[in-house]
Design goal:
Elements: H1 2-32, E1 37-44, E2 51-53, E3 61-64, E4 67-75, H2 102-131, E5 133-135, E6 145-147, H3 149-153, E7 161-165, E8 168-169, H4 175-183, E9 186-191, E10 194-199, H5 204-209, E11 216-218, E12 222-227, H6 232-236, E13 243-247, E14 250-251, H7 254-271, H8 276-279, E15 280-286, E16 292-298, E17 307-309, E18 320-322, H9 329-351
Parallel strand pairs: 1-3
Antiparallel strand pairs: 1-4, 2-3, 5-18, 6-11, 7-8, 7-9, 9-10, 12-13, 12-17, 13-14, 13-15, 15-16
Helix pairs in contact: 1-2, 2-9
Length: about 350
Amino acid sequence: METILIRALQLIMSLSLLVIIHESGHFLFARLFKIRVEKFYLFFDPWFTLFKFKPKNSDTQYGIGWLPLGGYVKISGMIDESMDTEQMKQPAQPWEFRSKSTWQRLLVMIGGVLFNFILALFIYSMILYAWGDSYIPLQKAEMGMQFNETAKNIGFRDGDILLTADGKDLFRYDADMLRQIVDARIVTVLREDRQEQIYIPDNLMQSLITDSVRFASYRFPFVVDSVIPDSPAAIVGIQQGDTIKSLNGKPVAYYDFMNDMDALREQAVLSGENTVDLLRVEIVRSRTGGVIDTLILTTDSLFKIGVYNVADLTKLLPVVQVKYGFFKSFPAGMLLGVNTLKGYVGDMKHVFSKEGSFI
């Protein structure tokens, strides 16, 4: 219960910050153009307020309402949440919103959104300053990528290393990379030391929207994190830190191993047998220090060997770490924020497609 209350309080405080910043945008532009602001409220105040005060010689009343669904500023000469239409029946006064020029009224109206965007840029900058940035370079992931069925249907294969989209280099796996691929005509990959070209259909994004599995993910080695006591793996001596290199003579990454074991289980189900021969597998493992040996083990009835893998990719694949100083974090944060907004705006076209709509 205490955790729920703390999170509720955190949510209210976060929303309060957003509301104050948003309404401050309207307020400051209004005051800049000498427009009278009658009220500045955090939360709505139907019937009564929790707190209010009006500084001496000020036209503005500041307060806190009781309904935490937003906030508002009441600007003279503007129809707002209060729906005060009586004021509009009087002649326009110099301090009213309606007496100002078009560009001034526009800035007052978009001031809230503009300030929220500036806040987002500041937050992005502080995130980069505090934690920096890290990513796995696509070309450094030597095992390539694992693709979903939609990607395989247009020509991608597990193990492909993504190189370029319409001649532009692909650096990291993120939303921008996916947008590059979707908007491209040709994607170049490295496959078995040869460059191959894959032609991208116009409806790829629509197909991906309907998928329940992500377009691609990094392939990584099967490194043992822990071994269940008395399991098949423990019996043959598999230990923490071992890497499983192949299964029944076939080189495998982690996903390959899991898929092949699933295939063996399905074979047993279809055959109606669960014999020792079907349960027996040959594994080549690499031990810490580089020693490689071959093990024959018998899985359990569910075709499990009894190990957990290392799932943290930063321990398995090369990671680029980028640190930012205080002043350098601001241009980097602004660039990140602008690119994120551009991506969201570009994605809006898919919302109006059959696959992307919520209806």
